[in-house]
Amino acid sequence: MAVYETWADWEVGHLLVELRTGRFTGEQWRVVTVGESAEPVVSMGGVRIVPDVVLAEVEPEGGDLLVLAGSAQWDEGGHAAFAELARRFLHAGVPVAAICGATSGLARAGILDDRRHTSAAREYLEFSGYKGGDKYVDERAVVDGDLITAGPDSPVQFARAVLQRLGLASEAKLDAYEGVFHRADPAAYPVLVG
């Protein structure tokens, strides 16, 4: 999980909880935070995080997933080092999950030019100067091989798409997950916990 100033903690909250606890998948993952330096950063919600490792120490082959949350700094052209890390992960065949502003950073880096993707809106990404408009899909979350993207209004669908891509839950359980956490459907709960 990449952490940087103003990272949007709510966008990745569902995903991080499911990966770390394994409460619905039966498989616990170790979540490691990655910063550009070892200095603490503060999320958009005011949570202070000290990165576990620094960017220079990260090798894609040593991980199973790179998660990139939105941040105002993506829109200002920042976080180029994390976009390059994403490129390295994808080149190594390791999944990258980007939501909201992180998609604009990947667009700016040309990573979305040849992959199906989504974001807040096609027009939002056009400000990045990217050339992938014909690959834009107007869905809550999109999986294209090792790339998972979502818009800011879709943290549950983002979590679902990542869990699906990683093969951590059945389609029925993923439907139930979205039913409980997005639609507040009480009928989905027994399937989710069963």
UniProtKB/TrEMBL annotation:
Q: InterPro entries annotated for this entry?
A: Class_I_gatase-like, DJ-1/PfpI, Prot/Nucl_acid_deglycase
Q: Give the matching Pfam families.
A: DJ-1_PfpI
One GO cellular-component annotation of the UniProt record comes to: cytoplasm
TM ranges are: none
What is an annotated GO biological process for this record, any one?
A: proteolysis
Q: DJ-1/PfpI domain location, by residue?
A: 4-164
Q: Which GO terms describe its molecular function?
A: peptidase activity
Keywords assigned: Hydrolase, Protease
Q: State the protein's name.
A: Putative intracellular protease/amidase
Q: Which organism is it from?
A: Kribbella antiqua
